[in-house]
């Protein structure tokens, strides 16, 4: 790698970490002028210095020598320095490298599903949601579960959930050469996590190169692109026809509005804000009743009294099972080391938890020396 290329990577890592040259230089025992020369390519950086820089900016050493996926680069080039979300950027880039490596080594061919036409209206977003259910092998009506594994197996979208903290983005997604990846902020409640993932599914199916969603519920106008994606996500999780039937059934059982809200939220695994919005947009709830539904909180007594089954989909850390199985298969075949397997599993496993590797027979040596 040329000095200026390495220097650019050091500068990018520093900016993503939100550090000034003076701050980073002080942390790694360099003069600010020396660090500036490293970044502009006029000074060599030693292995020890680079190791200190990597630790200070929370990057792996090899990151400095491997160009970022094009989608990440193009996204960052559109931002002012430090304007992007460092936690999401760093994680989605790592996930992109991992998924592409595993798919290539495992010889895993992803299903080519093509791209869905972008919905031009809220009504088209509803139609697109029904098409997405078909692609994922989900029935047209009723709740949908096991989103992470369905998306990986059926449409090649590998979704991961990690606790990124309350101040980080809700989710991000990126197209790969084959398939795509999504990162969901596991710090959110389960309903909001599912909404965020359904939203990213829309970005993926409609072929948005790379996007970071800071507030999934925020709109950019009544019929704006993000508003249409929000509508797609709600329609995907809560089909209008089934919602109407379930609401009629609970109403006929003389359930009060609070009980109805708790039951429907649990059934469809959505948060109350999403439920209220969905009931309103399909004409099943008045605005005043919708405000009440948003205020409802499911308590422990509700779980007991209504015989609810708490669900924790996308609880962090969460990795797609098809991806995890591929990593373990590579490890069992000795294609990758234990350390590499743990890295590919995002440090969610320990070496002791990895499966035992079958011992090769003595005559297997000839396969390696013949």
Automatic annotation (TrEMBL):
User: Signal peptide position in this chain?
Assistant: none
Domain called HTH cro/C1-type: residue spans: 10-64
Superkingdom, natural source: Bacteria
Q: Which GO terms describe its molecular function?
A: DNA binding
Q: Which Gene3D superfamilies does the record match to this protein?
A: 1.10.10.2910, lambda repressor-like DNA-binding domains
What keywords are annotated for this sequence in UniProt? DNA-binding
Q: Which family does the record assign?
A: Belongs to the short-chain fatty acyl-CoA assimilation regulator (ScfR) family.
Name the UniProt record assigns to this protein? Zn-dependent peptidase ImmA (M78 family)/DNA-binding XRE family transcriptional regulator
User: What's the source species for this entry?
Assistant: Sphaerisporangium rubeum
